[in-house]
Amino acid sequence: MAQKETNGSNGDHISTRPPPTPSPLRFSKFFQANLRILVTGGAGFIGSHLVDKLMENEKHEVIVADNFFTGSKDNLKKWIGHPRFELIRHDVTEPLLVEVDQIYHLACPASPIFYKHNPVKTIKTNVIGTLNMLGLAKRVGARILLTSTSEVYGDPLEHPQTEAYWGNVNPIGVRSCYDEGKRVAETLMFDYHRQHGIEIRIARIFNTYGPRMNIDDGRVVSNFIAQAVRGEPLTVQRPGTQTRSFCYVADMVDGLIKLMNGNKTGPINLGNPGEFTMLELAENVKELINPDVTVTMTENTPDDPRQRKPDITKAKEVSGMGAQDRPAGRLGAHGG
Ligand SMILES: NC(=O)c1ccc[n+]([C@@H]2O[C@H](COP(=O)([O-])OP(=O)(O)OC[C@H]3O[C@@H](n4cnc5c(N)ncnc54)[C@H](O)[C@@H]3O)[C@@H](O)[C@H]2O)c1
Ligand SMILES: O=C(O)[C@H]1O[C@H](OP(=O)(O)OP(=O)(O)OC[C@H]2O[C@@H](n3ccc(=O)[nH]c3=O)[C@H](O)[C@@H]2O)[C@H](O)[C@@H](O)[C@@H]1O
């Protein structure tokens, strides 16, 4: 079939190839909900909050597929046994056959210490896992959203980062299994979109924080809070002037749902442009939680990005997605 594409830099790539038709099984007599939604990685931090939000809509049926590497059933315990909810222990590096209308593809360890723990598995999850989910989307005619990352910009030489920036990424470093893995995942999404007409959405998520972060997964917000609560020194990795921009998880989930249901393919940056140095963050946590703790400088890890701040102009264009644009206030303002 003839196919025409526009490949604009404004997040609205359009393939004129019609999307695949839903499988007839989707409309079997067991079908009840208006929308059946698969969330891979739904037992994790962001995924479980996304499931909570999706389940609020009584017309949704939600299926979670997760291998529980970094996620936990505990995050979903309030939904286990619910008639509109199913939990499958499944590794996305293996094919999955389910009849769904939308796929939120989150499965991937996100904390640097976990994704570096088994880098070959991490890249398999990003590449083979995304291929499998795209194959599923093609077979059943589902729309698929990938949670990519600000790490696709690597150690960015442009600041703040717009979606048009191609990044500065080390292809052979210890973070490459994750950042290059996500870059390949984005490539696969666009190839399936152009070649097969799959309806795709790509979110480039910037550092997100909130309840259910693993206390011991090494991410900076949970590390500092846990250290402050225990009365231990806050470990700022050198030089401490590196920056990050932190988004509250409820805002992230709203952004993901709006992106999925809007008409832009992305990639679209999702995050809060409020930018902190790690030293500022430590001082902030200290002041809010335990003014008696000290701040200590420790060794950093290779290829740590020196600055990161999203340009969220495009996110704001997707109707009502300004929720991420919180003032660059104190992290505690959300009580998360
Ligand atoms: N949290 C952030 O700041 C952030 C930033 C950028 C991008 N992201 C992306 O968002 C997504 C969710 O991140 P998170 O912070 O909730 O991480 P998380 O580690 O809490 O959740 C990831 C989930 O995926 C599951 N998983 C991992 N490998 C899998 C596999 N092979 N098969 C099936 N399930 C698997 C884990 O068990 C876990 O439940 C990830 O794709 C991550 O790359 C997160
Ligand atoms: O938002 C993103 O795109 C990425 O952000 C994070 O990766 P990173 O920014 O390295 O997250 P942290 O491990 O929380 O580190 C943030 C900064 O804090 C510093 N840090 C970390 C831990 C600590 O105890 N002290 C400390 O100063 C690190 O050196 C780094 O500069 C996530 O964990 C990735 O999954 C995600 O894709």
TrEMBL record:
Q: Name one GO biological process term.
A: UDP-D-xylose biosynthetic process
Subcellular location(s) per record: Cytoplasm
Q: Which UniProt keywords apply?
A: Cytoplasm, Decarboxylase, Lyase, NAD
Polar residues compositional bias, start-end: 1-13
Q: What is its main location?
A: cytoplasm
What InterPro entries is this protein classified in? Epimerase_deHydtase (IPR001509), NAD(P)-bd_dom_sf (IPR036291), UXS-like (IPR044516)
User: Which is one Pfam family of this protein?
Assistant: Epimerase
Catalytic reaction annotation: UDP-alpha-D-glucuronate + H(+) = UDP-alpha-D-xylose + CO2
Q: What is its EC number?
A: 4.1.1.35
Q: Where is the NAD-dependent epimerase/dehydratase domain?
A: 37-270
Renumbered residue ranges of the record's region Disordered: 1-21, 295-336
Keyword Transport (UniProt): no
Please name the PANTHER family in this protein's record: UDP-GLUCURONATE DECARBOXYLASE, UDP-GLUCURONIC ACID DECARBOXYLASE-RELATED
Entry's family note:
Belongs to the NAD(P)-dependent epimerase/dehydratase family. UDP-glucuronic acid decarboxylase subfamily.
Q: What does this protein do?
A: Catalyzes the NAD-dependent decarboxylation of UDP-glucuronic acid to UDP-xylose. Necessary for the biosynthesis of the core tetrasaccharide in glycosaminoglycan biosynthesis.
Q: What's the name of the protein?
A: UDP-glucuronate decarboxylase
Taxonomic path: Eukaryota, Viridiplantae, Streptophyta, Embryophyta, Tracheophyta
